[in-house]
């Protein structure tokens, strides 16, 4: 769906949007119940909204939400996708259409921090502090006696205190349920702040690079492991503060172009041009 919504009063009907993608649409759609065996963490209660659940796609919904562009969350998507509308951030929508080759008519990008009404429910996207385009979904679902049930679906996210300063997040304090990323929810995991991690990497590159400039008789290749997207902040800071371009392969460069970094001068595909190279995890 080639849309760039900005209207604060945007109201959408996912069934209508889906029917508009069909060459010979039926007059209406009748949805069977969502199976009781459907993973509850991927379903917003009292709706047909399915989150990062493309592998489970079936005829009981046409309302799909994608939190971010990492393969463990978009598994089930392919260029032949036609089972429903995908709601996501603007950045993720570009990655879906230009990298995965999803037909744009099935993609509907939503604005950040602006409430949108979808199928009678209020939906707000807020940043997840994870990778470019990653968002959390905040849902207000009509409940009994004219009230609302409030649900937060974090996707993969990295908590930071500034999230608490966002007025829209305050509205969901004491919400009915949180679908939480618990990947590192264990006291044994203690990570530095993102800014501290970036500073550490920059300092290592500068220190080792300085030793080489002082005549140390060895060569060092700096390898930075990333997924298809992620670590862009670190890579850009290496360029800015270390004066080193970053070498990437053609697929990574394609993604960087979609993200708007292709012509920034930060990245190169020429391995001989720099001693900082991006590699995969394997």
From TrEMBL:
Quote the CDD domains the UniProt record gives: SNM1A-1C-like_MBL-fold
What Gene3D superfamilies does the record point to? Ribonuclease Z/Hydroxyacylglutathione hydrolase-like
Q: Which GO terms describe its molecular function?
A: 5'-3' DNA exonuclease activity; damaged DNA binding
InterPro entries registered for this protein in UniProt = RibonucZ/Hydroxyglut_hydro
Q: Which GO terms describe its cellular component?
A: nucleus
Any GO BP: double-strand break repair via nonhomologous end joining
Q: Supply the PANTHER family for this chain.
A: DNA CROSS-LINK REPAIR PROTEIN PSO2/SNM1-RELATED, DNA REPAIR METALLO-BETA-LACTAMASE FAMILY PROTEIN-RELATED
- Name it: Metallo-beta-lactamase domain-containing protein
């Amino acid at each position: 769906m080639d849309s760039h919504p900005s209207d604060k009063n945007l109201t959408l009907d996912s069934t209508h949007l889906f029917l508009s993608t069909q060459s010979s649409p039926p007059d209406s759609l009748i949805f069977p119940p969502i199976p009781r065996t459907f993973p509850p963490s991927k379903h917003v209660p009292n709706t047909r909204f399915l989150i990062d659940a493309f592998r489970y796609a079936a005829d009981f919904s046409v309302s799909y939400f994608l939190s971010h562009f990492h393969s463990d969350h978009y598994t089930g998507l392919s260029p032949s996708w036609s089972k429903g509308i995908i709601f996501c951030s603007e950045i993720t929508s570009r990655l879906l259409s230009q990298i995965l080759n999803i037909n744009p008519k099935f993609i509907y990008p939503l604005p950040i921090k602006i409430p949108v009404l979808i199928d009678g429910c209020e939906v707000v996207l807020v940043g997840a502090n994870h990778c470019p385009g990653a968002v959390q979904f905040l849902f207000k679902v009509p409940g009994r006696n004219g009230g609302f049930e409030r649900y937060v679906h974090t996707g993969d996210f990295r908590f930071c205190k500034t999230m608490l300063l966002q007025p829209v997040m305050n509205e969901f304090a004491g919400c009915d349920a949180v679908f939480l990323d618990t990947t590192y929810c264990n006291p044994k995991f203690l990570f530095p702040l993102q800014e501290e991690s970036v500073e550490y990497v920059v300092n290592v590159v500068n220190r080792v690079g300085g030793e080489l400039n002082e005549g140390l008789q060895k060569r060092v290749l700096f390898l930075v492991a990333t997924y298809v997207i992620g670590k862009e902040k670190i890579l850009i800071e290496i360029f800015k503060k270390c004066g080193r371009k970053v070498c990437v392969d053609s697929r990574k460069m394609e993604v960087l172009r979609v993200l708007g970094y292709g012509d920034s001068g930060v990245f190169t595909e020429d391995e001989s041009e720099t001693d900082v190279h991006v590699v995969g995890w394997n």
